[in-house]
Design a protein that fits this description.
Structural class: alpha/beta
Number of domains: 2
CATH superfamily of the largest domain: Type I PLP-dependent aspartate aminotransferase-like (Major domain)
Distance between the termini: 34 Å
Helix content: 25-40%
Strand order of the largest sheet: 4-10-9-8-7-5-6
Strand content: 5-15%
Radius of gyration: 22 Å
Shape: globular
Largest sheet: 7 strands, mixed
Number of helices: 14
CATH topology of the largest domain: Aspartate Aminotransferase, domain 2
Number of strands: 14
């Protein structure tokens, strides 16, 4: 019989093996155990369904964290999406010929975004964002990119840190290294802070800017006037407007969040939940701009992989049937309200941000990382995956919410007592404090 300590050792052993064989231990920073509760986070899953995740030891958790980094707004293993994928596999996924679903998905996305008329596809958000940048540079003949927000791992984005290693700290992730990024790219990508129109115009005034690239929303809702002025600046300086909606798309609207504001970009990037866990991302745009994609080489074998297109079509159909964007927004709003209630109940200072379906929260104390680690640690004992993010899905039921907040109530009560007694929170941690951004592991 394997006891709990032995089970934990199985996960720890595999984690150590992963660090030895995979740089960073896995291929996605946001899934490193060091970002949650080092030494305690279960790390590896065996099964996922609905909101339940079973780790490799067979222990089950309800996922109230970032829900696979926002890929599954329909829940894990949606039966209709999975059934469509299984049918696809039975007929064949790859061929010398093209899958017709690529055309069908392009037409569906254009239908949802009437301002657009063409689409290109990739498999990851970083790829799709890089495709959009290439098309913008090809169309305008200009080189520089003014940007705000998080847009992936490629050279064009990380090059912002060549001039100042802290430039990207002001966006989403801190401590991003420029190791391996050509120094010649310095000054080609220029960040501006969300809401800072004056700073953006200073960048545009320098000239040679191909595009303004930004997330429609990250931490707080933008004003319509702000988005209109961004659009006017793009027009004034003869550059393109690109909305990165990898994260925000299909959360509050059936499509990109920009539909809510009625602001039409030249290009938009959609991903994450588009395939409900299957790899598919897209770049949509006006025909005059997208045609520039034919003048530059953008091509990869698995851009034509069939599963992604099939999953995308099935997920869109399921979203439409369930009106998922309304459901997850309602669930997320209820989560925010209940979280604020508990914080008020125990006189805890908290900052809750983000769109309702993509909630971020931070306890406003100097030891916020210790607090995050403590809450994650204690909620694991209650069989919940928790962090400082909550990405809602249609499968988060009222019963799940009640159970989560019953457990969180106990944890926050204990936290409040520790804080009010001026105790050292680290003495209550059963492992190291979590990381806040990119850090080497060894």
């Amino acid at each position: 019989m394997i006891n709990d300590d032995s089970k934990k050792n199985l996960i720890s052993d595999l984690h150590l093996r992963a660090i030895e064989t995979i740089p960073g231990g896995n291929s996605l920073l946001s899934k490193r155990r060091e970002m949650y509760a080092p030494g305690q986070w279960p790390s590896f899953f065996d099964e996922s369904k609905g909101i339940m995740v079973k780790d490799i030891n067979g222990k089950e958790y309800r996922d109230f964290s970032n829900f696979s980094v926002g890929t599954n707004s329909l829940g894990y293993g949606n039966k209709n999406v999975d059934a469509a994928v299984i049918r696809c596999i039975s007929k064949g996924n790859m061929s010398t010929l093209n899958p017709p679903e690529e055309v069908y998905l392009a037409e569906r996305l254009i239908e949802l975004h009437p301002w657009s008329s063409m689409a290109r596809f990739a498999r990851t958000g970083g790829e799709a964002n890089s495709i959009a940048i290439r098309i913008a540079r090809a169309f305008t003949g200009k080189s520089k990119i003014a940007f705000c927000g998080y847009h992936g791992w490629h050279d064009w984005y990380l090059s912002a840190n060549l001039k100042d290693s802290r430039n990207l700290d002001k966006q989403v992730l801190s401590g991003l290294s420029v190791s391996g990024v050509p120094k010649q790219l310095e000054g080609s990508s220029l960040p501006f802070v969300e809401g800072d129109l004056e700073g953006l115009e200073k960048i545009l005034h320098q000239g040679d800017v191909a595009a303004i690239k930004m997330e429609v929303m990250r931490s707080k809702e933008p004003s319509l006037q702000y988005l209109r002025e961004i659009k006017e600046l793009a027009k004034k300086y003869n550059c393109l407007l690109i909305f990165d909606e990898c994260t925000s798309g299909f959360r509050e609207t059936f499509g990109g969040l920009h539909l809510k504001y009625g602001i039409e970009p030249d290009l938009a990037v959609l991903g994450k939940t588009l395939g409900n866990g299957y790899a598919i991302t897209s770049v949509i745009g006006t025909k005059r701009v997208m045609r520039a994609g034919e003048t530059t080489f953008i091509s990869s074998s698995f851009f034509t992989e069939r599963i992604g297109f099939v999953a995308g079509l099935a997920a869109l159909e399921e979203m439409d049937r369930l009106k998922s964007w309304q459901v997850i927004t309602r669930i997320g709003k209820a989560f925010k309200d209940r979280l604020q209630f508990l914080a008020n109940k125990y006189s805890l200072m908290i900052d809750i941000t983000g769109m309702d379906a993509l909630t971020a929260y931070n306890f406003k104390y100097k030891n916020s990382l210790e607090i995050k680690t403590f809450i994650t640690q204690e909620m694991l004992k209650e069989n919940f995956l928790t962090s400082n993010l909550f990405y809602s899905c249609v499968e988060h039921s009222q019963e799940d919410m009640d159970a989560f907040f019953t457990s969180l109530d106990k944890v926050l009560k204990r936290l409040a007592n520790i804080i009010s007694n001026n105790e050292d929170l680290t003495t209550y941690l059963e492992g190291p404090v979590c990381h806040s951004g990119f850090q080497r592991l060894n």
